[in-house]
C-alpha cells in the first residue's frame, strides 16, 4: 500500500520512532521525525506544509505540547497513538486515535485517509482562492496583458460558487464529489461481483468493507435469521478489511433485535445516552457509542440486519451515512436472496440427480433437436456410454439400432419423435426395440417418453425412461421353447408307447417281437418318468418347497449306485471309472446328491462319443473344509461364453452338434440349485473338442464329529 504525503512523526522513544518512521517511509511517505512537538521556528519558512502528524501519546507527556501546537497549526490532522480508550485528555489533542495494540497495516490505513482528506481540503482551498482572484481582477481588456491567475472553466467556477453547493463550509466540494464517486464506484463493483460470484461470504465481505469505508465506521456486520428465527452473525469486518471472529464481535442485542423485530432504523450519535437503549447493560459493558443499524428486507420480509459502529467517537455518523448504509444493505439483501435462490436450485438439481441416479431404469432427456441433455447412471450401465460422452450428441447417433444404422427417428418406432412431434405422453404405450451398446453388444430395450414444456406450453424437449428387457425377452423365448419341448417330450413317448401296446394287443406277433415292443414301451415310460420328475423338481424349486435334510453320509455308495444304474442301461457303451481318494464323510442330503450325480452323468453320456471313458472323482479339498466331486468326459466341450449360462434355467448351447442331442435345459439348472441349497458350489472347466469337467462341492464333516461317529 503506497501512502503519498508528508508525515510529521512525534515520538519520545527512539526505537519506536525508528520503527514507525521505517513503516511510513516504506509506504511512500515523506517523514520528519521529532522526539517532541517542534517549536514555531521548526515549521520553516512556509515552504513545508505537513499533511498529518502521527503522535505517540501513550506517555502523556506530549499532551500539553500538542495542544499548543494545534493552536498554532489548526490545519494539522493528528493521529494519536494511545494505550487505552479512556485516556480522555490525550484524545482531545487528536482527530483520530489508535488503541494499542495496533498493526502496521492499521497505522498506514489511518494515515492514508488523513492525507487524502488534507489533500482534498488543500485543493479545494486553492480552487476557491483562484476563483476569488479571477473574480476580483477579471481578464485583461486589451487582450495582450498577462492575467493574474490561470483561466478556469466557467461551468466549474459556477458550480463551486453556487451557494447551495457550498452550504456547509466545513465540507469541501471536492470531498463531496469524491464521496459520491466512491459510493457509485463501490455500488458498481458490488453489482458486478453479485452477478459474477457464487461465494456469498466473499460478496458480503466486499459489501461490508465498502460500507465501513464510506461511513468511516470502525467495524460492521451482517446478521441473518437462522432456521430458529434467531439472528446469527454471518460476516463481521473491521476498517482494515479483516474478518472479526464471532466471539470477539461484541454488540448490544437490544439494538439489532429492535431493528429486526420492529422494522426500525437506528441512527444514534451516542447509544449510551440514547433513552431507547440506556437500560441495556451491554451498551455500557461493550463501550458502544456511535451506531447505525438497518433491516435487510426481501419482498417485504426482514431476513436480517446490517450494523456498523464506532466505539471511539460519539457523533461519528450522519443521515448521509445512514443513506449509504441503507443503499448497500439493499444490495446485500438482494445478493443474499439471489445466493439463497441459487443454493436452492443447486440443491434441487442435486436432489433430482440423486433421484435419477437411484432409479432402476435408464433416464435421459433431449431437446427439440434430439440432442441428449441428461443421462443418468442406470442409462450408463445399460448402454455402456458415459454421460460426458453422450451429452450434446444426437440420441439416435448413440442409441444405435441392432442393424448398426443411426438414421433419424420416425413416428413408427420412436417414442421420442412422438413425444416431440405429437406432444403427447405415451407412458402407457411402451415401445420395444433392439439396440447396440457401446461395445457392440445387442440388447433389447423397452422405453416410453414424455414431452417437456416451457412456460408458454411449447414442447422444448422430451424425457425418456427405458429398461433393458433382454433377460425378459430371453426368458420368453426359453419359455416358448420349453412349451414346444414339453409338447414334444410328452407326445413322442406317448405315441411310441401307444403304438407298441397296440401292436402287442392287436397283432399275432412272435414272442421276441412282442418282448421288443414291450421294452420300447418300458423305455419310453422311463424317459417320460424322468421328464415328469424334472418338471416336478423345477416347480418345487421355483415355489421354494424343496426341503434339504442334511446328514452325515459317505459318498462312495451314492457314486457306485448311480454308476451301476447307467452301466445297466448301457445305452451307448460308455466305460465308467470311479476314482476314490479316501473320501471323508460329508454333510449332505443323500437323495438330492444322487439327483445331482445322475444329471451330471446324463450330461456326460449325451455329449461324449459312444464307448468313451467317463471318470467320476471324489476327494477332499486340502485348502477348504469341503469335498469336491467331479464328472469328467471327453466329449465335444463347451465354449467359454456359454460356461456360466449353461446352469441357467432352459439354457442350451445352440450349435449343430448339440442340437442333435435331446435335452431340456433343466438338468444342470436343477443340479446348481440343489448344490447351492446344501451350501456348495458347482462349475465347469471345458475346452472345445477336448471334453468337460463338471465339479461340485459339499461341506466336509468336522474332524471332532467324525471321531465321535467312529467311536460309536
Folded structure, characterized:
The protein is of the alpha+beta class and 712 residues long. The protein is 44% helix and 20% strand.
Strand order of the largest sheet: 2-1-3-4-5
Q: Percent helix among the residues?
A: 40-55%
By DSSP, the count of extended strands is 22
Strand content: 15-25%
Question: In DSSP terms, counting alpha (H) and pi (I) runs of 4 or more, how many helices?
Answer: 21
- How far do the termini sit from each other? 99 Å
Characterize this entry briefly.
The protein has 712 residues and is of the alpha+beta class.
Topology summary:
Blueprint: E1 5-10, H1 14-26, E2 29-34, E3 52-56, H2 63-72, E4 77-82, H3 88-91, E5 96-99, H4 104-137, H5 154-161, H6 173-196, H7 200-215, E6 219-225, E7 231-238, H8 253-262, E8 266-268, H9 281-285, E9 290-298, E10 301-310, H10 319-358, E11 362-367, E12 372-375, H11 377-383, H12 387-390, H13 395-398, H14 415-421, E13 431-436, E14 442-453, E15 459-468, H15 470-506, H16 511-543, E16 551-553, H17 555-569, E17 575-580, E18 586-588, H18 590-606, E19 613-620, E20 626-633, H19 656-659, H20 667-677, E21 682-687, E22 691-699, H21 703-711
Amino acid at each position: 500500500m503506497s501512502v503519498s504525503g508528508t508525515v510529521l512523526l512525534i515520538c519520545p522513544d527512539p526505537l519506536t520512532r525508528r520503527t514507525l518512521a521505517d513503516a511510513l517511509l516504506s509506504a511512500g511517505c515523506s517523514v520528519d521525525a521529532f522526539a517532541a512537538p517542534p517549536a514555531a521556528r521548526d515549521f520553516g519558512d512556509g515552504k513545508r506544509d505537513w499533511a498529518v502528524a502521527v503522535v505517540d501519546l501513550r506517555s502523556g507527556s506530549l499532551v500539553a505540547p500538542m495542544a499548543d501546537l494545534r493552536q498554532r497549526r489548526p490545519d494539522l490532522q493528528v493521529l494519536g497513538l494511545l494505550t487505552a480508550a479512556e485516556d480522555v485528555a490525550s484524545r482531545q489533542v487528536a482527530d483520530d486515535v489508535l488503541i494499542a495494540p495496533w498493526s502496521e497495516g492499521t497505522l498506514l490505513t489511518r494515515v492514508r485517509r488523513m492525507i487524502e482528506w488534507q489533500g482534498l481540503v488543500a485543493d479545494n482551498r486553492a480552487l476557491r482562492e483562484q476563483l476569488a482572484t479571477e473574480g476580483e481582477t477579471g481578464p485583461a481588456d486589451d487582450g495582450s496583458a498577462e492575467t493574474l491567475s490561470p483561466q478556469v472553466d466557467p461551468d466549474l467556477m459556477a458550480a463551486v460558487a453556487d451557494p447551495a453547493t457550498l452550504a456547509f463550509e466545513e465540507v469541501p466540494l471536492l470531498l463531496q464529489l469524491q464521496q459520491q464517486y466512491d459510493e457509485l464506484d463501490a455500488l458498481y463493483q458490488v453489482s458486478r461481483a453479485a452477478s459474477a460470484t457464487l461465494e456469498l461470504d466473499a460478496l458480503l465481505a466486499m459489501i461490508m468493507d465498502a460500507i465501513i469505508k464510506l461511513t468511516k465506521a470502525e467495524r460492521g456486520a451482517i446478521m441473518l435469521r437462522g432456521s430458529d428465527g434467531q439472528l446469527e452473525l454471518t460476516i463481521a469486518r473491521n476498517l482494515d478489511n479483516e474478518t472479526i471472529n464471532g466471539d470477539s464481535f461484541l454488540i448490544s442485542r437490544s439494538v439489532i433485535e429492535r431493528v429486526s423485530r420492529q422494522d426500525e432504523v437506528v441512527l444514534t450519535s451516542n447509544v449510551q445516552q440514547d433513552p431507547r437503549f440506556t437500560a441495556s447493560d451491554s451498551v455500557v459493558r461493550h463501550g458502544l457509542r456511535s451506531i447505525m443499524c438497518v433491516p435487510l428486507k426481501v419482498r417485504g420480509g426482514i431476513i436480517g440486519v446490517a450494523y456498523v459502529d464506532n466505539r471511539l467517537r460519539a457523533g461519528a455518523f450522519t443521515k448521509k451515512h445512514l443513506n449509504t448504509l441503507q443503499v448497500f444493505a439493499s444490495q446485500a439483501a438482494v445478493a443474499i436472496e439471489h445466493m439463497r435462490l441459487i443454493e436452492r436450485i443447486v440443491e434441487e438439481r442435486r436432489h433430482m440427480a440423486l433421484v435419477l441416479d437411484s432409479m432402476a431404469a435408464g433416464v435421459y432427456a433431449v431437446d427439440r433437436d434430439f440432442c441428449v441433455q441428461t443421462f443418468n447412471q442406470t442409462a450408463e450401465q445399460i448402454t455402456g456410454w458415459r454421460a460426458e460422452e453422450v451429452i450434446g450428441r444426437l440420441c439416435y447417433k448413440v442409441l444405435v439400432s441392432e442393424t448398426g444404422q443411426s438414421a433419424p427417428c420416425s413416428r413408427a418406432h420412436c417414442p421420442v419423435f412422438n413425444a416431440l412431434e405429437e406432444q403427447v405422453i405415451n407412458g402407457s404405450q411402451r415401445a420395444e426395440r433392439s439396440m447396440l451398446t457401446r461395445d457392440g453388444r445387442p440388447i433389447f430395450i423397452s422405453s416410453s417418453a414424455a414431452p417437456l414444456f416451457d412456460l408458454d406450453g411449447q414442447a422444448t424437449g422430451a424425457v425418456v425412461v427405458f429398461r433393458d428387457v433382454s433377460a425378459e425377452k430371453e426368458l420368453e423365448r426359453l419359455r416358448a421353447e420349453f412349451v414346444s419341448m414339453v409338447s414334444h417330450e410328452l407326445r413322442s413317448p406317448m405315441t411310441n408307447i401307444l403304438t407298441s401296446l397296440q401292436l402287442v394287443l392287436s397283432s399275432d406277433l412272435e414272442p421276441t417281437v412282442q418282448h421288443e415292443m414291450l421294452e420300447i414301451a418300458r423305455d419310453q415310460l422311463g424317459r417320460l418318468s424322468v421328464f415328469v420328475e424334472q418338471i416336478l423338481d423345477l416347480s418345487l424349486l421355483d415355489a421354494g418347497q424343496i426341503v434339504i435334510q442334511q446328514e452325515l453320509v459317505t459318498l462312495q455308495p451314492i457314486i457306485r449306485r448311480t454308476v451301476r444304474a447307467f452301466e445297466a442301461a448301457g445305452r451307448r457303451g460308455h466305460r465308467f471309472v470311479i476314482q476314490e481318494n479316501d473320501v471323508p464323510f460329508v454333510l449332505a442330503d443323500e437323495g438330492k446328491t444322487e439327483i445331482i450325480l445322475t444329471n451330471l452323468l446324463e450330461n456326460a453320456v449325451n455329449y461324449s462319443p459312444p464307448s468313451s471313458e467317463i471318470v467320476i472323482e471324489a476327494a477332499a479339498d486340502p485348502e477348504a473344509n469341503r469335498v469336491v466331486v467331479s464328472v469328467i468326459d471327453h466329449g465335444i466341450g463347451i465354449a467359454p461364453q456359454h460356461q456360466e449360462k449353461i446352469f441357467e434355467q432352459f439354457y442350451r448351447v445352440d450349435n449343430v452338434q448339440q442340437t442333435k442331442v435331446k435335452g431340456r435345459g433343466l438338468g444342470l439348472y436343477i443340479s446348481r440349485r440343489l448344490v447351492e441349497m446344501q451350501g456348495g458350489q458347482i462349475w465347469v472347466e471345458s475346452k472345445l473338442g477336448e471334453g468337460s469337467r463338471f465339479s461340485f462341492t459339499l461341506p466336509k464333516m468336522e474332524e471332532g464329529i467324525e471321531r465321535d461317529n467312529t467311536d460309536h
